[in-house]
Amino acid sequence: MVAGNTDPFPRFSVGELQRRRLAMVELMERAGVGHLVAYGSERTGSAVQWLSEWPVTREAALVLTPGEPLHLLVQHYNHLPNARRIAADCVVEWGGPSTITRLGEILGARLTEGQRVGVLGPLGYRDHRDLAGSVGDLVSLDREYQRLRLVKSSEEIERLEVAARLSDLAVEAVATQARVGMDERRLAAIMESAYLAEGGTNHIHYFAATPMADPDVCVPSQFQSTRPLQAGDILFCEISAAFWGYAGQVLRSFTIEADPTPLFADLHAAADSAFDAIAAVTRPGTHVRDLVEASAVIEEMGFTIYDDLVHGYGGGYLPPVLGSKSRPNLPTPDMVLEEGMALVIQPNVITTDEKAGVQTGCLVVVTGDGHRALHDVPRGLRRIG
Question: 300 and 204 in one domain?
Answer without folding.
Answer: yes
